[in-house]
Amino acid sequence: MEKLLINGGKRLTGTIKVGGAKNAAVAILPAALLSDSPCVISNLPYIDDVIVISRIMEQLNARVAMIGPGKAVVNATGQIDCKATSDMIKKMRGSIYLLGALLGREGRVEMLLPGGCEIGARPIDQHIKGFEALGASIDISHGTIKAQADKLVGAEIYLDVVSVGATINIMLAAVKAEGMTTIVNAAKEPHVVDVANFLNAMGANVKGAGTDTIRIKGVEKLTGCEYSIIPDQIEAGTYMIAAAATGGDITVKGVIPKHLESVTAKLLEMGMEVIERDDSIRVKGTGRPRKVTIKTLPYPGFPTDLQQPTTSLLSICDGVSIINESVWESRFRHVEELRRMGADIKVEDRIAIIQGVEKLTGASVVATDLRAGVALVIAGLMAEGLTEIENVHFIDRGYERIEEKLAGLGADIRRVADGEAALKVVNSDAVV
Ligand code: EPZ
């Protein structure tokens, strides 16, 4: 078990480059199973979720070979196993996309139900509704889901909730179905558009991704392509928040500023300076943030995946801020840890009421999920003294070399093995 040690209070300055989008990568890799020839995928982030999905695909007989930094060839030209029973499936949510990809490719799939961050119930009823509308029969028992179809035929599918996963999974199952599929009330996230663009690069006919109606005209076959994944807007947003939190001055490079409009708007409302260029965003922290009200929503609303780090930033706001988490029902587990650091936050159901305090103080805290972990990193950077974060493996699921990137901006942060961390805490001047 590794930990992160952060000696807070350093102003972060400089330029940072974000990697490829995690939530696009974990869908695009399985999507490549639909191709009858190899696909070259670049700008793949080197994070645990990408490594895990690649390993699962290899166990199914696909070959995922790294041919350069962030560049892989996916070769699924051989016989692919449609029974995915690896325990790794339970480690991550993205494995859900094997369902749509294998159903679309082979007309059948048997898979353990996927896991992922514990942030709510994470139902898959909308995925199932979509697969059934396309003609598949579904059986769930003993923690395994089986889907099977003699033939998939296009259909009109109305999603009862705006779901990223269901939208992508239905696209994967429908690209080779007979006729036209329409997804109504589709998710509009940038990674949904990225997956549609990847499918089209393989020869699919997907129109309307990025709007709430996606039309997919089935094609007979998909062939290999070269494709570069979009930048990760959540990683970018995290570093924007880090700039605001430390009174810093950070330029986040290699981003699509449009994908971050809601974050930019809220940082401006907090009184921060934000300067957008074609492919970069510069954030200058200007002191304690002004109080704001935020409601998380599907894109283009404020992303739930940045709610947790934003809570950390607002813990030192001037006044009372309100955050309404409308996407996930239990995504406030980081709050208890922030309280250990001196934050004054009450949570009532899906609403956090944040009474800003003047400062946070370092403490020993535990990450409970990916973005909770990164929220604690932000808190540690802001806090006076030493913060020790356990369960770093959660952060590694979605952030590549986070401590190296932050150290490059002037943070005093390092990764240590469990025993070493304890020793350092005892010896540190910062601990009183
Ligand atoms: C994706 O999860 C992301 N994960 C999540 O990111 C992200 O928080 C979420 O989208 C929302 O943006 C991946 O892309 C791998 P949803 P997903 O289906 O697809 C309800 C992170 O931190 N719902 O859009 O699982 C559901 O309960 C992770 O990177 C149903 O009711 O999310 C939720 O309230 C965490 N029935 C809402 O929809 C369904 O069948 C949105 O879920 C599906 C979802």
Quick structural gist:
This protein has 432 residues and is an alpha/beta fold. The chain has helices at residues 22-31, 48-59, 97-106, 125-133, 164-174, 190-201, 233-245, 261-269, 307-314, 334-340, 370-382, 392-396, 402-408, 418-427, and strands at 2-7, 13-17, 39-42, 63-68, 71-75, 83-84, 108-112, 137-141, 144-148, 156-158, 180-184, 205-207, 213-217, 226-228, 249-253, 273-276, 280-284, 293-295, 320-324, 344-348, 351-355, 364-366, 386-390, 412-417. The two termini are 25 Å apart.
Keywords:
432 residues; alpha/beta; UDP-n-acetylglucosamine1-carboxyvinyl-transferase, Chain; 2 domains; four-stranded mixed beta sheet; 14 helices; 25% strand; globular; disordered C terminus; binds ligand EPZ
- The CATH architecture of the largest domain is Alpha-beta prism
Radius of gyration from the CA trace?
22 Å
Overall form: globular
Binned strand content: 25-35%
Number of DSSP-assigned strands: 24
The CATH class designation of the largest domain is Alpha Beta
CATH topology name of the largest domain, in short, is UDP-n-acetylglucosamine1-carboxyvinyl-transferase, Chain
Structural class: alpha/beta
> How many domains is the backbone divided into?
2
Low-pLDDT segments, ≥5 res:
422-432
Mean pLDDT: 95
Could you describe the largest sheet, including whether it forms a barrel?
4 strands, mixed
Report the span from N to C terminus: 25 Å
Number of distinct helices:
14
Helix content: 25-40%
Major sheet: order of its strands? 22-23-1-24
Bound molecules: ligand EPZ
CATH homologous superfamily grouping of the largest domain? Enolpyruvate transferase domain
